[in-house]
Specification:
With 338 residues, the protein is α/β, with parallel strands linked by helices. It is built from eleven helices and 15 strands. The protein has a domain of 235 residues: 3-Layer(aba) Sandwich (Rossmann fold). Helix content is 42%, strand content 19%. The radius of gyration is 19 Å and the shape is globular. The structure holds nicotinamide-adenine-dinucleotide (NAD) and uridine-5'-diphosphate. Nicotinamide-adenine-dinucleotide binds next to helix 1, strand 2, helix 5 and strand 5.
Amino acid sequence: MTSTILVTGGLGYIGSHTAVELMERGFDVVILDNLSNSSESVLGGIEKITGKKPKTYIGDIRDREMLQTIFKTDHIDSVMHFAGLKAVGEGEEKPLLYLDNNVTGSITLFDAIMKAEVKRVIFSSSATVYGESDTFKYTEDMPLNPINVYGKTKLKVEEILRELKKTNPTLGIAILRYFNPVGAHPSGYIGENPKGTPNNLMPYIADVAMGIREKLFIFGDDYPTPDGTGLRDYIHVKDLALGHIAALNKLEAHTDLITVNLGTGKPFSVLDLTQVFEVVSGKKIPYEVVSRRKGDVAGCFADPTLAKELLRWEALSDINAMCKDIWRWQQNKINIIR
Ligand code: NAD
Ligand code: UDP
């Protein structure tokens, strides 16, 4: 029998790529998204890739009635929970909004999940839940100490899931801690589409390559890293999506609670990424070094060993493929997003 997966936030960046991978593997996908950071045009991209439009509810995870309708109508086996607000700076300015959307929203969703006796939940957590590490390398058992409101909302939801497991041992739970998702679907039909000025490095570089922005501002070149700029673990969004399928397979075999890093384990600096993007796009990326951005750490990358052992998953795309795919999407998206 086909399994039905509810993908909350399924019109967003990571959710839409995961919906595609699920549909291509024969899962029935139902999307719930309130369009706070996405648009219905994403459905067109999903249809171009998979030949189908997933059933979609435009609504909020905090809407109990809507959740009740979905779980009554669609016989959901598993939930992949991507819906959330993710802008670190906005979280500092509007903590209540972030707590309400990300934490209250998740509680409301989990309550509906328990009532509907859903078997599995996969949650989008983040490397921001970790405290600082001198080695820049993170294993899942390292201390958790998020320094911003956004990271705190992720940690709270992790804690709620751990509590839920104690009283509901048959519920399978995967907490996936993403490092830096980048890239786009290789078809060029779906990708990241940040509203306004991008906060993140990759979409900003892509805008500079397109001539939409004059130059990249590099936030500090005096970090204790080989070239002085920040080191991060960039992971292709398609690999990340496949990590969710691997987690789903794992939970189908064992109703565990697992907490796993999804990263490549390979750090790249801001300058590394800029240089690769120049080669891939054939465009010059002018840049200016400015002061460090508040809250940034010098380096952060995954130890991906547990994902390999537990999920039999590892990221396959290299940094060239990530840049190539985002560049293709960057050139296409103007014709795709209405
Ligand atoms: P995104 O903003 O592109 O997607 C999130 C989607 O959720 C959007 O379509 C938005 O409209 C929807 N949404 C938000 N609040 C909702 C609500 N209350 N009800 C229904 N829908 C709602 O973000 P993304 O990059 O795809 O991230 C997906 C998840 O992964 C988020 O939870 C995010 O915090 C987490 N995450 C993202 C990153 C990253 O760098 N992109 C890193 C670590 C973790
Ligand atoms: N960065 C930068 N200029 C930008 C955006 C980001 O120099 O316009 C740097 C940032 O300081 C960090 C790296 O790029 O070292 C990745 O930042 P991003 O915001 O993409 O991800 P983060 O790891 O902060 O979530």
